[in-house]
Amino acid sequence: MQLRDRNVGFVATIDRAGVALSLSCGLHCIFTPLLIGVAAGLPIGWLYDESTEVLLLAAAVLTGALSLGPSYWRRHRRTRCLAMFAVGVGLLALAKLGPVGERWEPWTVASGATLLATAHLVNLRLCRQCARFEAEEPFA
Q: Which terminus of the chain, N or C, has fewer Cβ atoms within 10 Å?
């Protein structure tokens, strides 16, 4: 197995983890307010804790930076996934630090997290296309 093939597998693993983290973050922000009334007697207080939300957001953004940046520079050079990632991070920042009110915060965070997950999926597709192209390309 060549080094490039291993890098594609590593990037794919990070992208899949990024998709899972981003979607978990979005689902957490949408469903936690709904669970407050339904699961009042269950021991799931950690879901309501602000540190859980901060940890999910930080993990999603860090995973995106670790995957999307190197993939862009080393493989496909397409800005599409970087742009989606940047807009997603911007929405997350607006929701957590900016002028978005409590009413819109869950939807803004869910939209940002969805963009992060979509950026990872696009990155996966672009890296696979590059790997296929490199495999077909004859060595000079």
A: C
In contact, 112 and 92? CB cutoff 8 Å: yes
With beta carbons less than 8 A apart as the criterion, state whether 120 and 23 touch: no
Name the residue range of residue 7's domain. Answer: 3-136
* Cα separation, 82 vs 117, whole angstroms: 12
The two tokens of residue 48 are: 């309501």
Answer yes or no: are the C-beta atoms of 114 and 26 closer than 8 Å. Answer: yes
> Could you tell me the two tokens for 34?
């709904």
- Are the beta carbons of 113 and 92 closer than 8 angstroms? yes
Q: How far is CA 134 from CA 5, 22, 27, 123, in A?
A: 10, 30, 37, 16
Per-residue pLDDT of 58-70, as tens digits, reads 888 888 888 888 8
